Request: fold
Amino acid sequence: MKYLVRDGFTLIELVTGVAVIGLLSVVLSAIVVTSQRSAALEKTRADLAVENRRLVDETMRNVKNARSVMSSASVLGTNYTTGAQTLILELPAIDSNQTIIDNVFDYQVFRITGNTYEFIQDAGAGSNRQDTSSRLFSERVSSGTFTYYDATGNVLVGNYQNTQSVGISSTLSQTVRGRTVTNALTDVATLRNR
Reply:
């Protein structure tokens, strides 16, 4: 009885092996690319949600502490006017012991311009709050508006000194790997120091 001993692969076996390895490589690389894209999208979604929540919470916290909404004001030497993209708050100034300073006020501007949301603060004499020329909360704003309500819940257009509550609607977006990710948030707060 003779046994056949083979010394290698046939051409068909070699071509089939290379094709199988090539196919596996394509499938695996597609899986890796898809998971990287999904991870990047999820990270961006989470980042936008945190940034938007911080932006809205910071604004609403200051609205709650405000004495009034100003129709217009000069803040750090620049004139601002309240409207759908700009909110000007007057807050009682507080000292280092968190005690209200009589007849001294701090002024804050929250402003949406283009894709930015910024905060500006002009602290009154002796106030524990600091002047802030411009602090960016976000550079990913795709839309945002302020809405002003009187004591009965009616929307105000002008006469902002009658504002009892302020609403904010903010949408942040960013394009990642060809897909646009957005986060929208809306909240309303009532002025407590009115």
Observations:
- Residues 35-190 form one domain.
